[in-house]
Write a structure and sequence with these properties.
- The structure is a single chain.
- This protein has 588 residues and is of the alpha+beta class.
- It folds into four domains: 126 residues, Topoisomerase II, domain 5; 77 residues, Gyrase A, domain 2 (2-Layer Sandwich), CATH 3.30.1360.40; 113 residues, Topoisomerase, domain 3; 97 residues, no CATH class.
- It has 20 helices and 24 strands.
- Strands 14-9-8-17 form a four-stranded mixed beta sheet. A four-stranded antiparallel beta sheet has the order 10-11-13-12, covered by helices on one side.
- A hairpin with an 8-residue loop joins strand 12 and strand 13.
- Helix 3 crosses helix 4 and helix 7 packs antiparallel against helix 17.
- The longest helix has 41 residues.
- The protein is elongated.
């Protein structure tokens, strides 16, 4: 066997780079229409199936048809469709109307039903992503086996790239685009058309999510994200306190987490003794909505508890923004302003192509009518030519010679029924001529005038906002109004006696318990090495024979009695193997 020696850089370039670029360009990163290829193929398939105006069909049927454009497994295609459905609740403006169990974005355990049990169709909102697609407004390319055509992009009439959230992990890069309110995006785009230096924060307050919650709002932080396309912000859940049942009800959570993740973390904190104020926690989520019920112990301050949970669980989470988008086939990280300008450039191209298509159609129609107008000058001559022609194939050439018209005009005249070859019929058709000339003139005045195209875009955006706009779901909480949780606020500060033994056991005993206690219980051969009078809120420093120092809190140890052995410090503080306590003392 021959061995071919190659530099590793050449091998990587030949074998790895094509795969990496395929993932970036054809799979993971969204384009300026706001869709990844898998989304676009699915939605276009549904459009060609007549599911924009027709009734629902089985999801399995949609998945099967989509395979003509997307050669993936049925489960991958169905999962893509699930995310776009109204039932799944991941999008502020879903593209797929659904019937059946499609699970929920905010729940890890509410799995969607199999495709044979569910039904779907395109939502009416999709009329805005397929507008004029049959007018050559976007390029079409061959599908994977060249048996049909599919659009490279969809002619979206609004900046969908900023309305629908998108997340993708490619090779060496990723994209994470949060969703914004449709009305705010439309208003911002209109203002940017009028003034490219428009202050975005005036019309685009912050991202908006289906799961609601509230963003911890810092204007400078948000402005930086808008301008650069990278950065992060914090979002937290919202709750109400049911005083009657002494219970906290959480009905809105961060978009980045799930109900189960929050409950699991709270349960872990309760089990570890780090949260002692909760008596029970229940997931009462169903298909009517999200609900987490937290039962409190008597006397617990719900606000202080929630501050603690915000800090220690994903009830408060960060959303990392990375607005990485494919622009003309190349990945670029762009801010909101730049993304809107790129979309405007794309939309201008769509409208110009659509207007040019209309102009051509109207000119073709006018051309036919002009030929018909020449026939009007001598209808009898036309009838005579047709009647006097022996061969059917010679009718068109003879009409062309007889009236000085071209082949297309002659074909049009030849196809007119004999009963319609009369003056009234021809005059009724020719009445369109002046209207067509006027419409062509108006369209030609628009097609090469960017300002007039801008006016069309503004009008469309205003109509979309009016028709589909919704109030914000995610509210804002200014950073200055946030009450930060600090552990010392939650700690009962009282006097205690701390006993440390030679073997590394620690006892924390209150004065009252100490007065009532008898002899200290110790392991055989062990003895007390130090005793300190301190407070429950103090720090405790523990030194070991490995030269390490561990810092902990006195209150992290349970109050105990003299009759107990206490807590074993190496285990409590996770010492290394064969590491022993040398000395421990409290500090304020």
């Amino acid at each position: 066997m021959d061995v071919i020696l190659k530099p590793i850089t050449q091998t990587l370039e030949e074998n790895y780079m094509p795969y990496a670029m395929s993932v970036i360009v054809s799979r993971a990163i969204p384009e300026i229409d706001g869709f990844k290829p898998s989304h676009r193929k699915l939605l276009y398939t549904m459009y060609k199936m007549g599911l924009l105006t027709g009734g629902r069909t089985k999801s399995a049927n949609i998945v099967g048809q989509t395979m003509r454009l997307n050669p993936h497994g049925d489960s991958a295609i169905y999962e893509t469709m699930v995310r776009l459905t109204r039932g799944y609740d991941a999008l502020l403006h879903p593209f797929v109307g659904s019937k059946g169990n499609f699970g929920k974005h905010f729940s890890r355990d509410m799995a969607y039903a199999a495709s044979r049990y569910t039904e779907a169709k395109l939502d009416g909102f999709c009329s805005e992503i397929f507008a004029d697609i049959d007018k050559n407004v976007v390029d079409f390319v061959d599908n994977y086996d060249s048996t049909t055509k599919e659009p490279e992009l969809l002619p979206v009439t609004f900046p969908n790239i900023l309305v629908s959230p998108n997340q993708g992990i490619a090779v060496g890069m990723a994209s994470n685009i949060c969703s914004f309110n449709l009305s705010e995006i439309c208003a911002t785009t209109v203002e940017l058309i009028k003034n490219k230096d428009h202050d975005l924060l005036l019309t685009l307050s912050a991202p908006d999510f289906t799961t609601g919650g509230e963003i911890i709002y810092e204007p400078d932080q948000m402005r930086s994200i808008y301008e650069n396309g990278v950065g992060s912000f914090k979002i937290r859940g919202k709750y109400v306190y049911d005083k009657k049942n002494n219970c906290v009800i959480v009905k809105e959570i961060p978009y980045t987490t799930t109900v189960e993740a929050i409950i699991d973390k709270i349960a872990e904190l309760v089990k570890d003794g780090k949260v002692k104020e909760i008596s029970d926690i229940r997931d009462e989520t169903d298909f009517s909505g999200m609900k987490i019920a937290i039962d409190l112990k008597r006397g617990v301050d719900p606000e202080k508890l929630m501050q603690k949970l915000f800090k220690t669980t994903t009830l408060e989470d960060s959303f990392p923004c990375n607005f990485n988008v494919l622009i003309e086939g190349a990945p670029k990280v762009l801010g909101v302003r730049s993304l809107i300008f790129e979309w405007l450039k794309f939309r201008h191209g769509c409208l110009k192509r659509g207007i040019s298509f209309d102009i051509k159609k109207k000119k073709d129609r006018l051309h036919l009518l002009e030929g018909l107008g020449k026939i009007l000058l001598d209808i009898d001559k036309a009838i005579s030519i047709i009647r006097g022609t022996e061969d059917d194939g010679e009718v068109v050439p003879n009409l062309m010679i007889g009236f000085g018209i071209d082949e297309i005009q002659a074909e049009f005249v030849a196809d007119i029924k004999l009963r319609n070859l009369n003056k009234n019929y021809i005059l009724s058709k020719l009445s369109e001529t002046e209207t067509l000339k006027k419409e062509i003139s108006e369209l030609e005045a628009v097609v090469d005038n960017p300002r007039k195209i801008d006016k069309i875009i503004i009008k469309q955006l205003e109509n979309i906002s009016k028709k589909y706009g919704k109030p914000r779901k995610t509210t804002l909480l200014y950073k200055g109004d946030v009450v930060e949780y600090t552990e010392t606020e939650e700690i009962d500060d009282y006097q205690v006696s701390v006993f440390v033994t030679k073997e590394g056991y620690l006892k924390k005993i209150t004065p009252q318990s100490l007065r009532m206690s008898g002899e200290q219980k110790l392991k055989e051969g062990d003895s007390i090495s130090s005793v300190y009078e301190t407070s429950n809120a103090c720090d405790l420093i523990v030194f070991t024979d490995k030269g390490q120092a561990y810092k902990t809190k006195v209150y992290e140890f349970e109050d105990t009695k003299a009759s107990a052995l206490g807590e074993f410090l190496p285990q409590k503080l996770s010492f290394d193997k064969d590491e022993n306590v040398v000395f421990a003392f409290p500090i304020k």
